[in-house]
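Review form for a predicted model. The reviewer records the input and the model, then writes brief findings.
Reviewer: anonymous (R2)
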Amino acid sequence: MSQSFAAPSATFTEIAVIRWLRDLIGYANPAAGDVTTVWDVGGVTTYGGAGSNTTAMMLARENIAPGTMHQGVTDATRMHIVVPAGIGHYSVKSALEWIGCGGRIIEVPTTGYRYDLATLERTLRERRSEIMAVVAYPGDSRTHTVENLRAVHDVTRAIDPRIWLHADACWGLMCAFAPELAHKIAGIEDFDSVTVDPHKVMDPLRDVRAPGPRPRVAAADLLVLGPDHAGGLRVRPGHAVYRHQGVVLGQALGDDARPRPPRARGPHAPPPHHHENLHRSCRRQPPPAAPERPPPT
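Model under review:
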C-alpha cells in the first residue's frame, strides 16, 4: 500500500494476489505494464471482512453522491442498502454507521435463505430513490446458502443501473477454486465489488484480508472492484490505500514472469485438502440430534 517508502516487495505481492483473484472472479485485468498506480489494480487488501465490506460501502456512497468523502454526507436518505432478512452480516450495517450514513438497512424477505426476487423487485421500485446498494451473499455465514447472483443482478439493473451491487463472498468465492463448484457463483463477475476471505477454507494466515471493485472490485480479506470502477472511481479510502504519483507498480509482474502463489501450485490449483474443505462447506448438514436425557429419578 505505502509502496513508495515501505515494503515495496509486499506491494508487488499484493498486486499479484489481487490479480489472481480478479481472474478467478471473471474481472478483466489490465496488462501488467499498464498498472502504474495502486488505483489501476482493482482491489485492496484490508484487515478483515468487515474492513472490506466497509470499503465497498464507501465506494457505493461515493458512487451515488460523488465527493461525499471530502464534503461530508448531506442527504443520508439516499444511502439505504438492501440486505436479505435474517442472514445479513452485521458488518454492512456497522459500515453505514462508520461512514456517516446511519444504519439505514432495508431487509427483504427470503425464500430458502435467498432473496425473494418478487419482493426484491417491488422494494427496489417503491424505494428506488433511497437505495444506494444491494448486498448479496454467495455463501452467507449462517447457512452457507449461495445467492442467485445472476437474478439479483438482472432485477437490480433493470430497475436502476446506478445502484451499487456488492457480493459479500467471504465464504462462497472459494467455489471459484474448484471447477465443479464454480457454477454456484455464476454472475458474480457482473457485481461492482466483491469481498473475498480466503482464511475461511483455504488455510492462509488469519490476518490476510482483501476487498476489490470490479473494474469492478475483489477483496482477501480483499476487496475487488469490477471493470466499471477499477480504473475510474478515484475514491481514496483514507488509511487503506494511498496514491503515489510517478510510482510504477506492476512492472515486476510481467505476463511472463508472475510470481507463483504459495506451494508453487498456481492460482487455480489449491492443495487437495482445500477441495475437501470446499465441498464440506457447500454441504449443509442438519444439526445432530440432541442426546436423550434419562428420565428424572
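Findings: The helical segments are 8-25, 49-64, 68-71, 90-98, 117-126, 149-159, 272-282.
Further findings: The radius of gyration is 20 Å.
Recommendation: see findings above.
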